Amino acid sequence: MRIHHIGYLVKRLEDALEEFLFLGYEIVKESKYYEDMHQSICFVSNGGYMVELICPIDPESAAWRLLKRYKNAPYHICYETENIRETAQKFVDRNYVLLGEPFKTPAIDNREVCFLINESAGMIELIETEKKNDKTRNFQES
Ligand code: NI
Fold first, then answer.
1. Which residues make up the environment of ion ligand 1, defined by Cβ < 5 Å?
2. Total domains present in the chain
């Protein structure tokens, strides 16, 4: 499956962003605080590799406990799929645990995503492929 991005936990987004820029990354989508998710997110890329910097703000964030455990570290790889529900079911059939139904994420222009976890593969995210002819799904737009 094609990789869309790597999710990377960070303790302080501004400090992390400064380091990623120093490492040669460019900003794809500016830092923004997403109130409903209790986290700030910024997308950066380097040579075709996109990284999602995720900074949980408080214990209400789903990634808060992961941050306490891993500090600054990658924690999920996101893969693109044409049909998120069909693909999620295939993973469930392979003993992945679906962590909640697919939902539209405001961090990526309301495209549908879901998370799954597996004992051998760890955590993965699925994102439904951008639908052509739908201008609201342009990644560059906020
Ligand atoms: Ni992600």
1. 7, 52, 78, 125
2. 1
